[in-house]
Design a protein that fits this description.
By secondary structure, this protein is mainly beta. The protein has helices at residues 6-12, 67-71; strands spanning 38-43, 53-58, 63-64, 82-87, 91-96, 101-106, 112-116, 123-129, 132-137, 148-153, 158-163, 171-174, 177-184, 187-195, 200-206, 211-217, 220-225, 228-233, 238-239, 244-245, 254-260, 263-268, 271-276, 288-289, 301-305, 308-313, 322-327, 332-337, 342-347. This is YVTN family beta-propeller protein.
Length: 348
Amino acid sequence: MKKFNRIFVMLFASSLFLASCSSDDNSSNESLGDYDNGVFVLNEGNSTITTSSVTFISNSGAVEQDVFRNVNPEAAEMGTLLQSMFFDDTRAFIISGLANKITVVDRYTFKFIATISTDFRSPRYGVVVDGKAYVTNYDNYEVGSDDFLTVIDLSNYTTSRVAMNNWSEKIIEENGKIYIMNGYFGSGTSVTVFNPATNSIETTIPLGFSPNAFEEENGTLYVLGSEKLAKINLSTNTVVGTPITVAAATSAGARNLNIEDNKIYYTVDTAVFAMAANATAAPTVPLLTYESQSLYGRMYGFAVNDGKIYIADGGDFSSDSQIYIYSTTGTLLNPVAVGVGPNGFYFN
């Protein structure tokens, strides 16, 4: 699942659209399939396998629930507690954290292609570089020293492992290098730079705080912790200046970093804050707040894209929930009903 709430850890030992989110555009007018212009909402579900699903919202606003089952009525289930989703040029890869597998579909038609189920243990996030996928795994949630990458050859879906020896969570690619966030609920205080050409760790960048989100923009890696925001120069792999304080230690903590049109967006509890990418101090007044009755699912998914802010509320993780779409000025545009436990947005 996207975020292992304490209750789940106890139970399981845990135009529209990094996590959170991914974006690839079809620049031609020719349709590549029924799902080539819109956003996928990943609904992680709960321990009941039939509650995991994918909702699609087209650029025209049409909503289709449970896309995978609609297109593939005879295919095996995707698994429980869907964690995240990532793409290559033609395929989408859907990670089930509890089933320890990835379901591969055509990203434009959503037709089932394959299931990958080897060399995973609590997989989290993935990225594709030069024909291979790299997926982070927690293994044992109580320690970070056993975390590893699953490397998938996408020509035949064979797999192998590379030890990380550090907390391994969110992952992105930039200029042929892979950046892995070493942070999970206050554990881990760095970012790992992995070189896929040598299949090895190149360096580790210390932060001084535990990260929970990061995003690259114009050669800078912005890394968010519950109280701090740091900027890493990717040409030198060093932290630039002093991290900005973004939330008080007594607050719910900052998370859900997104960067859009040279603005940084992040959340604290049910509030969204925004500031310029070159700001030296964080705002004190939120851009917007929303109402949530969810005990564990407030701001469970978040993204900013094309002048809109998207918020997913986890609800009660037993029944279908909603996402909320706002303008970047803070005006609610419309809510959209989705599945159980929506946790992420993925642009197609």
